[in-house]
Amino acid sequence: MKAVMSIILVLGLSLCVAAQTQGSQGNTQQDNSQMKQNTQGSQTSTSSAQNMSGKVSHDGKTFVSDTDNQSYKIGNPDALQGKEDQHVALVVHVDPDTNVIHIMQVAMPPQ
User: What CA–CA distances, in Å, run from 38 to 33, 34, 58, 83?
Assistant: First the structure.
């Protein structure tokens, strides 16, 4: 009787350990896929950093590039406060899906 109870106890504990191990592997796989997505997102935003020059709109919410006359919505218009209707040089991150730029640095272009 003691031997049967010992076997049942050992089997129960081994099932608990196996279930715990399998659950932690699933979490690790999820964590790895989330890290990979975050890394890909940061690589995308880093690789889209560009130098641009062009004109800021009157309201400071859009920017027209000199190179292709493409209009971009400005994601952080406060960065261009006081530069409305002026020609500026920018370092930006571009979101090609939404055509929105995030301004990292502003300078007056060389004449």
Answer: 9, 6, 36, 34
Three-state DSSP state, 57 = coil
Phi, psi of 88 (to 5 degrees): -135, 160
pTM above 0.70, yes or no: no
SS3 content of the chain, % helix, strand, coil (to 5): 45, 30, 25
pLDDT beneath 50: ranges in the chain? 26-27, 36, 38-46
Yes or no: domain 49-107 corresponds to CATH 3.40.50: no
CB 52 within 8 A of CB 92: yes
